[in-house]
Amino acid sequence: xxxxxxxxxxxxxxxxxxxxxxxxxxxxxxxxxxxxxxxxxxxxxxxxxxxxxxxxxxxxxxxxxxxxxxxxxxxxxxxxxxxxxxxxxxxxxxxxxxxxxxxxxxxxxxxxxxxxxxxxxxxxxxxxxxxxxxxxxxxxxxxxxxxxxxxxxxxxxxxxxxxxxxxxxxxxxxxxxxxxxxxxxxxxxxxxxxxxxxxxxxxxxxxxxxxxxxxxxxxxxxxxxxxxxxxxxxxxxxxxxxxxxxxxxxxxxxxxxxxxxxxxxxxxxxxxxxxxxxxxxxxxxxxxxxxxxxxxxxxxxxxxxxxxxxxxxxxxxxxxxxxxxxxxxxxxxxxxxxxxxxxxxxxxxxxxxxxxxxxxxxxxxxxxxxxxxxxxxxxxxxxxxxxxxxxxxxxxxxxxxxxxxxxxxxxxxxxxxxxxxxxxxxxxxxxxxxxxxxxxxxxxxxxxxxxxxxxxxxxxxxxxxxxxxxxxxxxxxxxxxxxxxxxxxxxxxxxxxxxxxxxxxxxxxxxxxxxxxxxxxxxxxxxxxxxxxxxxxxxxxxxxxxxxxxxxxxxxxxxxxxxxxxxxxxxxxxxxxxxxxxxxxxxxxxxxxxxxxxxxxxxxxxxxxxxxxxxxxxxxxxxxxxxxxxxxxxxxxxxxxxxxxxxxxxxxxxxxxxxx
Length: 660
Prior knowledge:
alpha+beta, elongated, disordered C terminus
């Protein structure tokens, strides 16, 4: 191709323009290293307008600040000796404009007839690129440090399972290095079974675009694996992050805790069973003692004999109270009690409490008072049986600790910040205050623990097993409240407990059973009671009590003899002991309810007469087909109430009247 003179001039002009504006510094030096040309871009960007072209032209390149600071003098000599020089990311302290920079430098010798006549020096400012690379390297180092700082295995892969990033722990578990696993398959160093599961879970995570977690086992080692899909803005999953944590120790701890919990539960069950059995064995002779005492008191004329029988009866009641507390504690430990809701009156509860304890307090020269906040609704809904039990335990404790002075029970309506409930609830604060011996401050928390006393057991002035306050605390918590005490030695004590109760329009089920007779014409002489009891003493005392009440009495010593008696004799109601030899009371009741006794209605009332006295036992006996339940020991009045109530109920249920 040939160019005209004008065309050559135009091409030369274009080339010069390109050289002047090219985004690099371009200089030409002669054979002595003197600058003969510098382009405009260098003046604008490297010199930054601080140096004009005249400053550079005629000056040796080696004398420029940037060349001097970067120790490039030797490289200039190499260029003038005929070598091509190419240097990358050379740091220059001070460019022509005074700034520091990173440069890529290329030097090309200019040859004429085999002789070096000069050189072209091209310098490119790569500061931004170098800094970006340094920042990237720093970030990568930080990222790697973060990955390696955890004991978890972390792997980033594509959706097909090929590894893109992993940490040292992931490589260590596979017996490889990080570099060796880059680009390898995630499943390559896994056992076949685990690899198949991991592949399925990864596909599931990708398909659902959701985290998938599962446990992965290798022999005795267990890992918690989480597979997390990483999607783009459109929701398409591009990568998958797999996290694997060694939870072997955690699993072992969980197993140990589970085993210890099972052992503790078994121990608690065994303790509850033991307490239930021992209280049963205590109640059986107590029933005989108290029954005999009641019968003897009815016949005793007075004097020393009556006083002795009263001591027997009072001691029996005290022992029964301890037995009841032990049984209650066993039920609490076994979580066998639940609140039973009923409508009640707080005024009636306090009135009953006053009648029960007023006489006892007067005998001890103690004034017993009750006070009721008039703002308390007339009727509330709650577990009135447990409320009475809490108050009774607190008053019993006050009576034991108060030799003279006053015991006061107060009920007050409060707004409690610590016991917040819905609008249909009201929070009541009960106070039981006495002027007794008081309790040291350091013992305020201790006295609510099981079997704990406020005095040393060898020097204590007050009798007790340390159960009353403990049971009160458990029952208050059962009602959703809390209990505390304020007391000081010699200044008396005030026990407080707050609990919520609902208004009557709140739906509840009333499960209370009250034995009340308003029928003056009820005649026990018209009814025959079969008493099934293997203990001779209990059979004797209960039989005599029934005769005193006017009932006709049949007796049997076990369930088998009871069935034989019922096949021959007519009975209207059965008092059935539970634990008996040959045939127990439950099996006997089972035969009766299935109509296996000729001539006997299978709906005949059966009352469990037993030393198993917990609420759980009562529910169990009723569920097994018995009509009612009377715990040993019991009073003659309680026996009369239970018999009358069940005979009347049977009479109303039968179209033929009371006789069955």
